[in-house]
Amino acid sequence: MPDRRKDIYEGAVVVVQKGPYMKTCRVSQGRSFVFGKKGEGQFTLNLDGALGCAFGSSFKMERISNKLFKIIQIKENTNMEDIVKESGEDNRNICDDGRSQKLSPEEISQLKDSGLTGKEVIQTLTENSLTFKSKTKFSQEKYVNKKQRKYDEVITLQRPSLRLLNNMYYTQDPLKIANLRIDMLSQILCYANVQSGGRFAVFESGSQGLVTAGMLHRMGTTGKLVQVYQGYHPQREAVDLMNFTEQELEVLSFINFSKLPDLDLESLKNGKESQTRSAAKTEVIAENREKASEDIKVEAKESNGESEKMCVDEEMKKVPAEAPKEGAGDEDNNKSAFKRPRKFVRTLVEDVEVSSSVLGGQIDGLVVVCRQHPVNITRELLEFLKPGHPFVVFSPYKEPLMDLFMEVKAQGATNLRLSETWLRHYQVLPMRTHPEINMSGGGGYILCGARVMSQ
């Protein structure tokens, strides 16, 4: 029985990493996944060989057919010392004119298709390079590492984490997550004082559920987290990719913005339940009652697991299964024992009841992450925040937060701070530590503060 925290099990989501390329896949027996763009660079990979192996293991891609590969676990990657025999003192006399490699692209492609291993292909390339031996050891290592990513055909299966998911989304398209970098995400969690046992609310749109996943990861199995959303469904793609257990998902509940409860201080003192707010009372709701009723039916059906879709298997294809063993006559015995994890641990009605109870009792922290103008949303949600407790608002643009700054200041907020973080990555290697040449242009803006109430 594999350890679900350390080993890859059936139904687990893994981050497949091949050089800088990353993709999430849900491992399932007898299924394969398509990688790369359409054309010659596209290939299909079967991940059955990863079941039972530890997260972080490296695997060798072995060709089954033209573009179908299986994976075999390897203990050691290509060692540069086996390839580099001698090196030069400096690179001043090396001229990069594109003619240093004797082999043509067609000959290199034939080498790759002839069945040679990645190490043998790299060895052949270095032997046919006119300038490889005269390069310094550092340059040779950089050259070999570059060729390894291209020809070695080694992948690593990582356990999904906030950093990996954030880097994957940011590399694909920063606008897909509203320019939310990992350093800004960590600051949001810090400023909101997200911790185990607390009661928090988050409004998230346009960031693939990364903030909700980060808050849920910090809270563990104790506390309450309410995700407020607009439209038909909450954004929770990152939550589904984090391999949370059902016990951890019980902390999370959902409520539509149109169903927020009324907060009456007198009723709270008397212990009475709060009533549901009328949809006409809010200024930011665009959906009508007919769409809301359809939403209830769709989400209730999804909560029962009848029409649930796996967000990580968009390009998944079936691989021919092995012949059934003798004695396996029933169809149920031929089916996999894997049960798809539930996306929603409660029904829609139960989620609204739990969320209304948490918001009615007031929350310890509020987080708003959205692309749209946050003034109306933040104004409505600040009513549920306890006095003296923090709120954090993230936006990819500065101007909406400047408007919100004046709005919350007039309402009585204190310790307000509008900030932007400047981030630059460093390469840290022996005798070669320096800032990286390329850096991100911006990671968005954060407005944080605390709510206060006048006597």
From TrEMBL:
Keywords: Methyltransferase, Nucleus, Transferase, tRNA processing. One of its GO terms (biological process) is tRNA methylation. One of its GO terms (molecular function) is methyltransferase activity. One of its GO terms (cellular component) is tRNA (m1A) methyltransferase complex. It is found in: Nucleus. Its main location: nucleus. Pfam families: Gcd10p (PF04189). InterPro entries: SAM-dependent_MTases_sf, TRM6. Residues 293-312 are annotated as: Disordered. PANTHER family: TRANSLATION INITIATION FACTOR EIF3-RELATED, TRNA (ADENINE(58)-N(1))-METHYLTRANSFERASE NON-CATALYTIC SUBUNIT TRM6. Belongs to the TRM6/GCD10 family. This is tRNA (adenine(58)-N(1))-methyltransferase non-catalytic subunit TRM6. It comes from Penaeus vannamei. The lineage of its organism: Eukaryota, Metazoa, Ecdysozoa, Arthropoda, Crustacea.
